[in-house]
Amino acid sequence: MFATDAILASQFFALRKSVPAAYRPIRRLMLAVLLDGIDCLHPARPAHPLSRRGRLQAEAAAWIWDMGAGTPFSFNWLCDGLGLSRSYLREGIKRRLPRGEQKGE
Predict the structure, then answer these.
(1) Which end of the chain is least crowded, N or C, by CB within 10 Å?
(2) Rounded CA separation 3/8 (Å)
(3) What does pTM read for this prediction?
(4) Contact 86/75 with Cβ under 8 angstroms?
(5) What radius of gyration do the chain's Cα atoms show?
(6) DSSP-derived secondary structure letter, 42
């Protein structure tokens, strides 16, 4: 009932070995796309909305906060494929954003 999120190293490596070798490159690509979207949302400094970085930031925000997307490589699809909680990840992303930039509230 009150389980923690922590797992042992042996449990982690057992999970990694259970994924067939043919699916590992796909999972790595899925993780790379997810991390790139999060990185685009969190720029090092504020970006002008009309700049390239500003457009990437706006696209990443729309992609992350889109609740209904079920298409391949949508935020929801990637989270499901990687076994991550969408709502938990969105809450973590929202906490890291500056107060004025928080979407999805």
Answers:
(1) N
(2) 13
(3) 0.68
(4) yes
(5) 16
(6) S
